[in-house]
Amino acid sequence: MTALVTGDARTAAPARRAGRTALPALVGYLVVAAVLLAVGTPLVDLLRYTGYALGWVVVPGTLVFRAVRSRPFTLVEDLAFGAVVGLVLELVAWAVFVAVGAGRWLWLWPLVVLVPYAVLPRLRRHWWVRYPTRVPTGWAWAVVAVVAGFTGYLAESFLKLNPVLPSTETQAQYIDLAFQLSVAGAATHQVPLDVPQVAGEPLHYHWFGFAQLAASSLVSGVDLPTVFFRLAVPAWCALAVVLVAVVGWRVSGRAFTGVVAAGLMFVVGEFAFENGVRQLFGTQATFIVWGSPSMTYSWVLLLPLIAALGEIVGRARGSAVPALGRGAWVLVVLLLAGSTGAKASSVPVVLAALAFTAVVLLAVRRRMPRALLVAVGAALAAQLFATAVLFAFASHGVTVDPLSGLRPYVGDVPGRPALLTGVIWLAVGLAFLLNLQLRLAGVVALLRLRRWRLEPVQLFLLGGALAGPAVYLLVGHPGSSNQYFTRAGFAFGVLLSAWGYAELFDRAALPRRGRLLLALAAAGFAVALTAVQLRHPATVTSDPAYRPVLPLLWWATALLVLVLLVSLSWPALLERWPGLAGRGWLVLLTGVLVAGAPGLVTDAAAGRQHPNGGAYAVVPMPASRVAAARWVRAHSDPDDVLATNVHCRQVVDGWCDARSFWLSAYAERAVLVEGWAFAPRMVGLPGGPYAPFWEPGRLRANDAAFTAPTAAGLAELRDRYGVRWLVVDREVEPESPDLAGLAELRFDNDRTAVYRLR
Asked: Angle at CA 364, nearest 5°, toward 363 and 365?
């Protein structure tokens, strides 16, 4: 009996430890699931998507990652990196299956991985791995808290205001969302992609993230709008949080670095002190995950790429984290390939970070590691591929235009003294640094602690952190999309800033009570700032041009005064609390890093009243239009082409704002001519979205089908352009009575009608 009890105890102990290890992840999933269910996500769709994410992404990707990395470290790293590897492998599988017209069979792709790993003895061992390092309990719960908090922010700022499908005629929607959904819809049956609104026009664009949306819908069976508006983006954000924490741990060798980096990227917002409806110079996390989901997807690929390149550049001295070994190169190749079409801003920043590291090492140490040179070559090759193949050398409106992102806040006032203009430029530049870069203050601490003698991996992170805003300030874009370079660089910056904070924290050597007091003080400071901003929101106007930056500068001045007062009273504080000795810099840096804590709270508060916080243009998305488009999706073939009489978001002085994307978005079909403003050849042209369509003959033939239809005209649409369906919005212009005799009316809800060509 004693032997049996002892044996049971020995067996039960690992099980209990495994349960404790899995508990944070389980709680995190349940919290995210509860939030998604609360905003109307169907339970069956949530379960289907969960099964897809685990069985079709995480499992095959983790098996491959385990095979390429040299030694195991932690289970959470294997799963996080494995999920990213799975996404890249899925992208390849999607391209193959869709290209041969077998998209409905995409669910079979994991067999390419699972069968060899089940049959071959050398691969079979990767199903069960023992890990030498247990994840600290505090680290795990902190990461879960960040995931849960950010998911709640997404719910308040977006999910509650944006239904999966509009149910009223007054629903408003951020203008870009329908375009993004249309690209994902095209990816369900097409590779390479065309512009969904102009049938046959190549889409030279970063569309890999939208292909992932399509793949997840094809495999899981979840309707694409549900994937887009409810499931994928929160899942990407949760994965990005875990990746920041894992990568921060790996590159620095400190688990604490990863937790701090996750907080800086997904808890602390911009230092803005505005009214929450709009932000200066864009935002890092605020609405960007919905304004540009491709940015979120690119972070997911960029973060492990940073880790792999960090190993190649040079591991942190004294790190106990096992090296990736040759697997780092496999990851670099996979993730560079995936990053080329994830976001156009990723690879240039990576290339600049590598080049910066090479130049500094060559200047300081008079040598350059061969591996670093090879990495530069790989990144350069990836950028050339993206430029030539994916973007076809199209500029997409990007031009060399230094300081164009700041110029609107300076203004051009005739007769204004040059000295005053210079002062305004300095003020706006300072506001830019405070607004978007304040969370990188830990970099300054690291430089001070290291006396500017950074390790190669730290140089690499610094290069990326500098390259992002540098490119933003160097180039211009009519839609301010140059800001995405800053966001790519921010992924480097938060890692290095957190590293600096961790080193300063270690040097302070706070006892347990001191750590608790510091945490409580930081939380109290954040709560106080948030309460002030919610109670006294700044009134922001645009006259004069620099006025929007004034609230930020006033608050920065007020906080600087607070710092000075604390500094003057520091000797007295030391007499009262001797334990503060030698810890003043830590207290100061903690306050600086949490100064933007009100950001996400105020954004969520504004989100209760405005779709996407009201910071960006919205368009009507009436339920009647969406119902017609969804009917077409259900009754047409994927290769069918549609025609519509809706091209304009609005008409101003006879000019069409050609940003209409609703039909291609919800029908998931190509449209002969819908809104053409986002076609790559149009971006950056004079007139912006009001520039005329480049093929007027096609547009005339399209419109004549509704206003003056003839049998010959409809036959031309059918035989020359492949049009099978006509979708008319009668509030734009009623169709000609002659159309009913030339085409078959198949759907009619008073506002919209759908005709099928005979």
From this structure: 105
| Angle at CA of residue 142, ends 12 and 496, nearest 5° | 125
d(C-alpha 267, C-alpha 530), whole Å = 13
Beta carbons of 722 and 689 less than 8 angstroms apart: no
C-alpha dist (Å) from residue 146 to 238, 240, 241, 245: 9, 11, 7, 10
Residue 16 confidence (pLDDT) above 90: no
Domain boundaries, the chain: 9-38+135-164+223-612, 622-757
pLDDT tens sequence across 733-758: 999 999 999 999 999 999 999 999 98
173 by DSSP, 3-state: which? strand
Q: What's the Cα-to-Cα distance from 396 to each of 341, 389, 685, rounded to whole Å?
A: 14, 14, 9
Between helices 255-266 and 137-154, what is the axis angle to 10°? 10
Which region, left, alpha or beta, applies to residue 671 given φ > 0 means left and ψ of -120 to 50 means alpha?
Answer: beta
Contact (CB, 8 A) for 162 and 643: no
CA 387 to CA 18: how far, in whole Å?
Answer: 47
**Alpha carbon separation from 486 to 282, 436, 472, 475, 641 (Å, rounded):** 10, 9, 6, 12, 38
pTM attached to this predicted model: 0.94
Using the predicted structure, report yes or no on whether residue 516 has a pLDDT greater than 80: yes
Lowest mean pLDDT among 146-160, 244-258, 601-615: 601-615
- Percentage of the chain modeled with pLDDT above 70: 93
Q: Are 243 and 296 in contact (CB under 8 A)?
A: no
183: three-class secondary structure by DSSP: helix
Start-end of H helices in 536-670: 550-568, 570-576, 584-593, 598-607, 623-635, 662-667
